[in-house]
User: What shape does this take?
Amino acid sequence: MKRLFAAFFAILLIPACLFGCAPSYFVKSDAVFAGIVLDVKLYGGNPEKAYEEMVSLATEINGAISLGEPDSAINAFNESDSGKKIPVIRRVYDLVRLAKTAYAETDGAFNPCLPDVSKAWGVDNDGIATGNPPAVFPTEEELNALRAVANPDLVKTDADNGNYYISKNADGVKLDLGGIAKGYLADEFKAIAERYNVVSGCISLSGNVILIGRYKEGDSERDWGVGITDPREKHAYVCGFYTQGGVSVVTSGDYERYYFSDGIRFCHVVDPFTFTPTGVERTDSGFAQKTDYVISATVRGASSSKCDALSTAVMVLGAEKGAELLERQGYDGIIFTADKKMKVVGKFDFATSQTGYTEYERI
Ligand code: AMP
Ligand code: MG
Assistant: This one.
């Protein structure tokens, strides 16, 4: 049953084109940077050229924002003193502005100024790659010392005659655009595909999906099918739905990048209010797993960068407040919690329940 389901659905988080590609689609699935896989399935126009441009844009942006590249513009910013203007390409300028807007729109749940907090917990890219906890967990005092600089309002952007700069208003402010960069790229990919006259397509960047036009099947067309990966059984789908093109679907979850310590899952999203990984709380004796935290948050809407920021924010806010945020922003969402609840915002054309989602109680 699950394989049958797979045959009908484009896929989030799993390479999208393993099954069911119509032969006339241009199909590619390759890692573009830092383990991020770009899956495309494009029809019409000049998909080869579109794909080539997507890969080169992904490489350029990753080079500019990667925390793992010592010479990246974002590392230059992170190491800079207060007031020093760091020249950046326009796209980085745009991305930083989007991240600042997301911070404001989510009342601080999306916060791109937490790289040192992520590092302290070992949930930054380097730490999480080991799959192990850090040698020592950070104390509350150590984390509190980072609070003053975890503030995107202290990041300044300037545009001057075609030159773009970012600077900080206080020493120690740092940026990590990992929570929104894939969405930004996906939006740019959509523009590239349209420029090359692609009329139907699915572009997936490790969980950030953009859908263009309608899915072509021989001479007929239909809505796209999207499957959401089961957060606790990754080879399966927790649910699936049909949707029109012209939208993005983005999932954030605790099941791709995490480690366990004493049976507690520490994931890569950090709560900017408690300064702990989402789903974890401190207790007198150490740490505990929250029972009702969000383990998967899918957001659907027009802008992929916004879906990306909102899905990360929902991980932080929890199902209730996360759903309120999506309603306020006019974005749809499907949220799953550790205590097996499913919260839906907006109208979804769900596929019949062939998969695990009946195990989650709709609230
Ligand atoms: P995502 O997978 O889109 O939810 O983004 C998670 C990534 O965003 C992490 O790997 C960090 O780089 C960064 N990040 C972690 N916590 C936050 C947060 N609360 N707000 C914004 N970005 C975050
Ligand atoms: Mg995100």
In short: The chain is about 30% helix and 30% strand. Confidence is low (pLDDT under 50) at residues 1-22. Residues 110-112, 114, 118, 176, 178-179, 252, 268-270, 272, 308, 311-312, 315-316 surround adenosine monophosphate (ligand 1) (CB under 6 Å).
